[in-house]
User: Fold this.
Amino acid sequence: MIVHSTRGASSASLSEAIAQGLAPDGGLYMPPQLPPRAIDWGPDLRTRATNLLAPYFADDALSAHVPAIVAEAFNFDAPLRWLDERTALLELFHGPTAAFKDFGARFLAATLARLVPAGATTTVLVATSGDTGAAVASAFHGRPGFRVVILYPEGRVSPRQAHQLGAFGDNVQACRVAGTFDDCQAMVKTALGNRDLVQRHRLTSANSISLGRLLPQMAYYAHAALACAKAERALPSFIVPTGNLGNAFACLLARERGLPIGRVMLATNANRALVALAATGRYEPSKTIATLANAMDVGAPSNAERLLARFPNVQRVIDADWADDEAIREAIRRAHAEHGLAICPHTACGMEVLRRRRERGDTDTWVVAATAHAAKFDTVVEPIIGAPVPVPEPLARLLASPSHSMPMSADAAALMRLLG
Ligand SMILES: *Cc1c(COP(=O)(O)O)cnc(C)c1O
Assistant:
């Protein structure tokens, strides 16, 4: 399949687009619009992922590798946890770094590993608001031919996230930037826009702008929607806690492919550019506000460009609402009191947005994407629920390793000096 940039001046095969990250014209590669599929999607997450993703790789250098790539990426499950007859959490945090980003990062790593020439080193650059960096680091850690450089905003990720980012070592370098996530993202964009640098270091990005991360995220929405259909539940709608709009965009793509998905609703924190976009159709990036749901602290969500390119009538395609820090705390407290569950602050945004719909009498079936495990945000969650959150095994292992990061000022020149 040939993919085209949102800015119209670049095209590439899907594997070329994945290798490049950002398109040379500065735009984002768009997944081709495929017709809905009417036939059987298969019985399990991996088969469904393969059936969903294979058409994008048609006529591609990697077309024969899709099942193997999927097997590497989807080696843990995405179960639904029903809270009542009409409400479920889609648990996306059972991977090695306890957030949904493991799916996309592992797919990207498995893809790139089959694309890079032997003997050369590819540098994967990643700006992270918390969870991306760890997922990407974990996915590439110890892979020959790769170096990973992570930029994260110092003091704006949770202590455990920061520890996790610095705990890999070897081919993974973590840099704590004196700035915001948007600064980190801008630094990465600048580096990737420098042709000489890109060629010298075989630079690529692992942010959610990469189709190698975006596309596989469709699979768990397909999986959840088909599980609802099989159990003869009503058509599920999805609430997706949203920052850069990668995860929710994948849900829209899954619906476009004919999966039985009702509405798609964004839940943001106090960074509300997407809430305004869904209401007015106008996209106005704003300054980042720091919140308890830090992986969603994004003032200028990069996938907004994709959303507008694919769905010019955006108001009719998505709904959106948001939760401030007080509402996040209350949603965490409520989930524990009512369901005995520890939820992370991002998932809490989704739960709060749903609570308001229910309060207004909504009786539809809603699935809230649970984007991270609460144990990553213990300093927020534990004081609210007054109980310790058990740490999943892979996360516990990382937290027990020593951690090292390097300080960096918030300008692209500092990043270029590090790259050498
Ligand atoms: C990254 C992240 C989000 C936001 O996902 P986007 O794809 O950027 O919208 C939400 N929750 C958690 C836990 C995350 O790590």
The pocket of pyridoxal-5'-phosphate is lined by residues 99, 101, 130-131, 208, 241-248, 295-296, 344, 346, 371-372 (CB under 6 Å). The mean pLDDT is 94. The longest helix spans residues 325-339. The chain is about 40% helix and 15% strand.
